[in-house]
């Protein structure tokens, strides 16, 4: 079991290294900075949310996977923790202009979860809802990028309540508002639907390399 787990971690690290090579193409190799335009690097980890930080003990947490799937899922903590776990290293870019490098996340990949549910070919978007009422939207392909995961740990420790524990989504290639904390529900849909910030003037896609902050 332990060997299997290790093999999976190694596989993921290799996958990340391949993806990282592409990303770091932006950092150094081609003389382009690792820091997206308009960002500044921080060493701390700021907390940003709507001001409600729901307290969801693992025993009360459930993740619903619904919409255009062959099998709807309702995963409690034990079911989630029993799925293959991976570790990924990625940078955070917040639209409020801070970036934080080398965050080590542990959890279940979005690809694995999508495979469990069997996403229909008609799905084009993913609508995400959280325990604080927050929502956000992603294009299906972006949600399925190989560096995306449903994370329960950061740098080896359980994600704290303020940072979205027990489980948050991590979508490293987009501004961090696309990474919902206290994740509750994932809906695969055939139409896009703007979420909380997208409804309030944030960009619908939110690519930091293109500085898609507002509008
Ligand atoms: N559920 C939920 N997720 C959320 C938010 C929120 O208010 N509620 N804020 C988003 C925004 S705007 C940012 S920048 C990041 C901040 O994550 P952090 O507090 O762990 O740094 O969470 C994102 N995910
Ligand atoms: Mo943000």
Automatic annotation (TrEMBL):
Pfam families, alphabetized: Oxidored_molyb
Oxidoreductase molybdopterin-binding domain location: 55-197
Coiled coil feature spans: none
Domain of life: Bacteria
InterPro entries registered for this protein in UniProt: OxRdtase_Mopterin-bd_dom
Organism lineage string: Bacteria, Pseudomonadati, Pseudomonadota, Alphaproteobacteria, Sphingomonadales
Species of the source: Pacificimonas pallii
The protein's name: Sulfite oxidase-like oxidoreductase
